[in-house]
Amino acid sequence: MLLFFPLLAIFSLTILYLFLLPKNTKNEPSFNHPPGPKGIPFIGNLHHLDTSKPHVYLAELAKTYGPILSLRFGHVPVVAVHSAKLAKEVLQTQDLNFCSRPPLVSMQRLSYNGLDMAFAPYNEYQREIRKISIVHLLSSKRVESFAPIRQEEVSRVMKKISSLSSASKIVNLSELLMGFSASNICRIAFGKRYEDDEGLSRSKFHSMLNEAEAMFTSFFFSDYFPIIGWLDKVTGKFSRLEKIFKEMDAFYEEIINDHLDPNKPKSEREDIIDILLRLRKHHPSYQLTLDHIKAILMNIFVAGADTSVVMVVWAMTELIKHPESMNKVQEELRNAIQNTNCINKCNFKELKYFQAVMKETFRLHPAAPLLVAREAIQKTKIEGYDILPGTLVHVNAWAIGRDPESWIDPEKFMPERFLESTISFKGCDFELIPFGAGRRICPGLHLGVANVELVLANLLHSFDWELPSGVKKEDIDTDVLPGIAMHKKNPLCLVAKKY
Asked: Taking the domains of the chain in order of start, what are their residue ranges?
């Protein structure tokens, strides 16, 4: 019954639109839009969209209409690109024109009206806050300073797996790694880990994270049909968004107040809140308010707690389905690193097959299959097609990683393809862009890669992995959950045997 009123409103407005549609269009400007499926007046192409797997839906459309296609979601023009050549055009050649963000309702609210580094529109403030983040929070040097935390949390995971292995119990890697990621990112950002017996339980932490992600990917009428934006109130979307915003705001407020407590013992190492509060105090030119700090924490909280887990789970999924690749990468790791139960330091760049496994996982399973949407600032052309200001631009990293124009046997997991290749995943080779590229490349790239390398290397070095009794490798699915990150739908459960 709740959906009846929104549908009735859309139907009525569509009829009104058709009735009022001007019959004489001779004087209207003519634009050469990219090809795409024909939409319905007022609604556009929203009725086509599969919100559970939009990257797959768009890739299927690209097979019909070509690597650049146009759609319309309500009143918003949308363009999606599906080739390395076009990705380079958007992310590098015309980066300055495509580096802004659309003012979507959920992004605006949860980012404190664009005070963060990921969803802020491109302007002087965004450039400054990104500079602060890259220089002070997420530089290679800063990521290295967080190494002891990563190592301690990985050691905890290894001990848990050893315990399960000794008891001949199945290891739910998806669940175990989500716990690692939450504790790791919380210690880096907030200086504390969350367990089931502490103030904010791990289950509550994940519940809050999941709801925030759900809001980021939710449909709001206000974004695409401003004239009926009131329906977001009727359907309860606004109240749901406001509820999770207040929960997260209270969470940030509590942690910041804890850091500001003059009686709190000084920590042995700075976390991200410590750094931000120090910058706020000693660098007034930055003009950091508590809302700025909360917005940055949101980026780290939502993005940082997910992406590393996603990549390790997909790497282990592919390796368990391809035992020959599993054997090769384990042999390389064990020959290079001996006489240790837990890898803490290693020059992972020297491990060629291990790096190839990571790249192949990034290619097939980018954590964010659609890069965060960009917005065209000015009118321009791509491949001769007109792109208007305000157009929402999607770069389909998932489709580009599977494009037969760039890859031989693109659907096949084959790390060997990278052994003699110089292709990097750090934004300079557009066939492989799991972290994006250009001015809006993921600022957490170094941190994400460091987490994936350390966790994956330890899992492969310390244990041999098998499928549970009665399960065949063909039974391991690759279905995904809807959301920002491409989580495996069904948890990866394996048997670990101590090496």
From this structure: 4-498
CB 356 within 8 A of CB 163: no
pTM of the predicted structure, to 2 decimals:
0.91
Nearest to 212 by CA among 487, 441, 483, 447: 483
Residue 223: other Cβ atoms inside 10 A = 22
- CA distances in angstroms from 29 to 25, 26, 376, listed in the order given: 9, 8, 19
Task: Spell out the long-range contacts of 262-268 with Cβ–Cβ below 8 A and sequence spacing 24 or more.
Answer: 267/191
Residue labelled with tokens 């065949």: 472
CATH number of 4-498: 1.10.630.10
Half-sphere exposure of 110 (CA within 13 A, CB side): 30
Measure the CA–CA gap between 301 and 309, rounded to whole angstroms: 13
Check whether 442 is labelled as a binding-site residue: yes
Give percent of the chain with pLDDT exceeding 90. 73
* Short-list 53, 25, 76, CA closest to 374: 76
Q: For residue 338, list its beta bridge partners.
A: none
Q: Per-residue pLDDT tens for 111-147?
A: 999 999 999 999 999 999 999 998 999 999 999 999 9
Nearest C-alpha neighbor of 177 from the set 158, 194, 164:
158
What are the two backbone dihedrals, phi and then psi, of residue 336, each rounded to the nearest 5 degrees?
-80, -30
**CB 358, CB 326: distance < 8 Å:** no
